[in-house]
Amino acid sequence: MMLSSIYDGHAAGDTLAAHPSQSAVPDPTVRLAKSIRHWIQFSDWYTTLPHVILYTSFEDLVLRLNHTTLDELRLVSQRMQQHNARLAQQLRDEWRDILLKVASNSPNHPRP
Question: Can you give the residue ranges of every domain in the chain?
Fold first, then answer.
């Protein structure tokens, strides 16, 4: 469902126009090369995720698959899980701090 709403050219329910100061920024909901080139730099697909095994071509992929042992793949998976657990905790801590700052201005003044 999400992919179809993106790939038909516009996000579902998209009715907001860009701020005039952003007129030079390509629309992220339009599938044009210029837009994709602009927005892909902000994605974290594979490039910022540690332990992902990258390959440069189909031939390189086949070579890596033929020379990577099951134990090596398990180790990569374990390291990915550990990284994801640390990242999840970091994000929870950051959101907790943000929400507590917002709440400190609330008339209810919730406690941590």
Answer: 1-43, 44-112
Condensed to tens digits (0 to 9), the pLDDT of residues 11-30 reads 555 556 778 888 888 888 88
H helix runs in the chain, sequence order: 2-7, 33-40, 58-67, 70-103
Q: If 0-12 CB within 10 Å is exposed, 13-18 middle and 19+ buried, where does residue 35 land?
A: middle
State the Cα–Cα distance between residues 78 and 84, nearest whole angstrom.
10
Given a contact cutoff of 8 angstroms between Cβ atoms, the answer to whether 98 and 105 are in contact is: no
Where b means 16+ CB within 10 Å and e means fewer, 75-87 reads eeeeeeeeeeeee
- Separation of alpha carbons 5 and 35, rounded Å: 16
Report the alpha-carbon distance of residue 13 to residue 68 in Å, rounded: 45
Query: Residues 94-103: pLDDT tens digits?
Result: 999 999 888 8
pTM assigned to the model: 0.54
